[in-house]
Design the sequence.
């Protein structure tokens, strides 16, 4: 079997996840991890994974079939994705929803210059959740979409707590409200406020002698992050945080309720949900599946920017069309 | 906006559902229903729907963009789909899983003769459930698939009961076993027997004076239908059946549990479920969405047989790529 040669740019949670996921796909092999840090300072999941400095990445244009970008959406990907789409077929997980159109356009222009494929904004949201919203909306054109996130760790909200004076460490969970889920599933088409959809739980390690009341108040009133939610703050020790809150679980629900029938009298409900013990490992697994599709598109001579909406599902699989029809249809 | 002109071949539950669904899609219009029965004997959902005899169908090759076939998988579609794929772009819901490969080949050969597109075996299973099995399997290559059906009416099992001597009418429900669902979701990877996955409930109207004990025994021991299940039989009146069991609800669950991580220590779970008040209306809504994709493929000059695995999801939508990226990604 031909091996799809994967390169990883950036070695954070996503980069590690991609390293792990490639190992689970026998039709792929890992060329190496490329990092801006000193390569010798990097400890990979598997000791045999080669680590190079990003400065040498362009030496590998002939050795890498698909480059998977593990950088962040704030500053890394807006610069890296268009840049490397000129040299490689790429996959990224750009997840700033409001800026996807401009990111798409930048990657599309760059990729087309040199006949490359750039699949952007994949993972689970954007990614699988987007795909489910699209499918459900096309099947039930008269209906309503609901997306809930959690229970899971929000990295951004955890960081926001850590920046408060007197906070040593923190972990924040976003939790969907059961009553809201029930109402949506029952087809009641509720109009839900931010507060009615999710609650937030914060586990906080305070510095010795810090004013806990002031910290709690600063958290629950923080605009944009917590003020619009019912937020509960628990003070715990660093030991407890490390023991009970080490993982990065996440997940969520995409639900579409709609109506069919001559009088719109028939209720139909489509629900997709994820329960993930590791958010980054799952996201990376999606990126790797889409790398396979990118490789196939590239071999067919297609190019430009793509999203999950553009990819025939069969392209994600190493199996032939005949195998898929026989085994899965 | 250009209108996609839909024809319907066959006017059973699926044909009616397609008639209803076309009305919910503003970019489509209905050319008419084609039936083997006497057109004047057909009462359509909407009085303005034209009804023609199938003998005149070939007069409409220039007026129909996509022909949706509402026939059954046992005898209608194996003959009709290849036959009409020579004259029209078609969509069918052929659902005999084991015979899909040969049906695909027959439609592929026929459609290619005259440069048509034949999208086969869509609906929800095969169809959406197949798509979810494919996506989940590609994301989590190391894992296990589970499909549960129900709670819903099984037409074939209801028919089997009606054929028993002394039975006037019957309705059978397939119900997933809660404990099995719980175990699967918990990642316990159970090996489930037929009996452990689903139970069957039968509502039976017996003829006056019929031997109910004999009927019940004939049902629960019926090989291939009920013998392998825990089956409960309730005798009710025709009035009760008509009042409480008139609908054709169905649904089900596709669950994949898998592992990621260096030691396969991380558990991930993907779940897709449908809760449908009308099985045929939902199936028809899927057929109509795929008719849009077929129309687009045809305009691009593609041809041959296709399945849900081959269709870029964006092709199901009337929206542009830019709209989809902005609104749904």
Sequence:
């Amino acid at each position: 079997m031909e091996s799809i040669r994967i390169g990883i740019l950036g070695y954070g949670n996503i980069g590690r996840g991609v390293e792990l996921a490639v190992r689970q796909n026998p039709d792929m092999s890992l060329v190496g991890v490329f990092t801006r840090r000193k390569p010798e300072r990097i400890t990979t999941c598997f000791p045999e994974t080669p680590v190079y400095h990003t400065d040498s990445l362009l030496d590998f244009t002939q050795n890498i079939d698909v480059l998977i970008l593990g950088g962040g959406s704030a500053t890394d990907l807006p610069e890296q994705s268009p840049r490397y789409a000129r040299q490689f077929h790429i996959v990224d997980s750009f997840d700033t929803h409001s800026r996807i159109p401009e990111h798409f356009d930048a990657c599309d222009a760059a990729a087309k210059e040199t006949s490359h494929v750039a699949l952007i904004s994949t993972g689970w949201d954007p990614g699988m959740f987007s795909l489910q919203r699209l499918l459900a909306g096309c099947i039930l054109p008269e209906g309503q979409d609901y997306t809930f996130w959690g229970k899971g760790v929000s990295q951004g909200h955890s960081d926001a707590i850590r920046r408060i004076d007197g906070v040593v460490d923190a972990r924040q969970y976003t939790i969907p409200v059961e009553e809201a889920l029930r109402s949506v599933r029952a087809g009641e088409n509720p109009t839900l406020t931010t507060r009615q959809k999710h609650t937030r739980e914060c586990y906080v390690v305070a510095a010795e002698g810090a004013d806990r009341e002031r910290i709690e108040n600063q958290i629950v009133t923080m605009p944009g992050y917590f003020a619009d939610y019912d937020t509960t703050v628990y003070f715990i020790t660093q030991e407890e945080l490390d023991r009970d809150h080490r993982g990065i679980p996440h997940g969520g629900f995409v639900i579409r309720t709609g109506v069919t029938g001559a009088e719109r009298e028939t209720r139909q409900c489509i629900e997709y949900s994820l329960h993930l013990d590791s958010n980054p490992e799952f996201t990376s697994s999606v990126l790797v599946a889409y790398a396979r599709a990118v490789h196939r598109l590239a071999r067919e001579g297609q190019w430009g920017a793509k999203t999950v909406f553009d990819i025939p599902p069969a392209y994600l699989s190493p199996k032939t069309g005949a195998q898929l029809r026989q085994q899965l249809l």
Observations:
- Chain B has a mean pLDDT of 97.
- The CA atoms of residues 17 and 281 of chain B lie 4 Å apart.
- Chain B has eleven helices and 14 strands.
